[in-house]
Amino acid sequence: MAIMKNLLFRGKWVAITAATILLALLLAVLSPVFLSVSNIQGVLIQASVTGIMAMGMTFIILTSGIDISVGAILYFTAALFAKLVEISTPIPLAFGAAILCASLLGTLNGFLVVTFSMSPLITTLATYTMYRGMAIHLTSAQNIPVPRAFGFLGNGKIYGIPVPILLFALIFFIGLYLLGKTRFGIYVMALGNSVEAARESNLPVKKITMGAYFLGGITTSISALILLARVGGLQSGMGIGIEFTVIAAVVLGGTKLSGGSGTIIGSAVGAIFLVLIDNGLNLIQASPYIYDIVKGTVLLTAVIVDKVSIERQKKQLHLQKALRIQGVGLEV
């Protein structure tokens, strides 16, 4: 009971979960189609791509970093897989090569950020251009179809459950375990709270940072292969803008952009919430031109709430510090 109470009233993900439930109830009233099994499945399948990427991005932002290049890593991964398959490389080998390369690209981001003390935003903005350029050079910006058998990853089912949803659930539980039950998760939180304190405590700052970006790369590669399987082939515009949707999901889920505080469950629900907005606007036949306006407004609101929350915490800490000093003075 105590654990449940803690989750309900102190969890960072409660606000976005409540908002998601309210939005779902509103959509159910506005459109009876919303509650159909096919529509719910569609929402979860769409959320799986950004949701899996959000799992990795959560670790990166928790270290007070950010990775703008995930959209380009997604495109490069899909391009590499499609190109390897096109030249008759066995699918398992192409699959492994794509995941390995994406992991290395993510790790490279972490290496550059921590080794040269570079801004994560500027660094990954530069690598975004580099990775996307590499993919375009590899494929000459051509659309490349993939074998129909590979479509099972994006459109297949196991015991009636779509494969993307199963992968989303699997990555979710792995993320929960890594963040909540391992030393790596504790170190990630500590690094986000204070890099200087982490260094003074002899924590392996470089390894932790590179590990977080590695997770960002590997989760992006999984999402890339799911997306590639769903659409049936490489498309030149694949992955453009998805980095902002992923970051929005993480921030909406309660992870602070300054790092050190956040949850995996919040990021997962944040991804579902964003897809619900698209789904709801589609069901009520709203103009497609307002989709980005609505999602941008929601994200801006979340950032403002996050900023206000941080300022309130700072004021509370200063007040507690002042009270302790006064208490010591009275005792003297």
UniProtKB/TrEMBL annotation:
Organism superkingdom: Bacteria
Pfam name, any one: BPD_transp_2
Subcellular location: Cell membrane
Keyword terms, alphabetized: Cell inner membrane, Cell membrane, Membrane, Transmembrane, Transmembrane helix, Transport
GO molecular function: transmembrane transporter activity
Transmembrane segments: 57-81, 93-116, 158-179, 208-228, 259-277
Cellular component, GO annotation: plasma membrane
Membrane topology according to the record: Multi-pass membrane protein
PANTHER family named in the record: ABC TRANSPORTER PERMEASE PROTEIN YPHD-RELATED, ABC TRANSPORTER PERMEASE PROTEIN YPHD-RELATED-RELATED
Protein name: ABC transporter permease
Organism: Vallitalea pronyensis
Lineage, top ranks: Bacteria, Bacillati, Bacillota, Clostridia, Lachnospirales
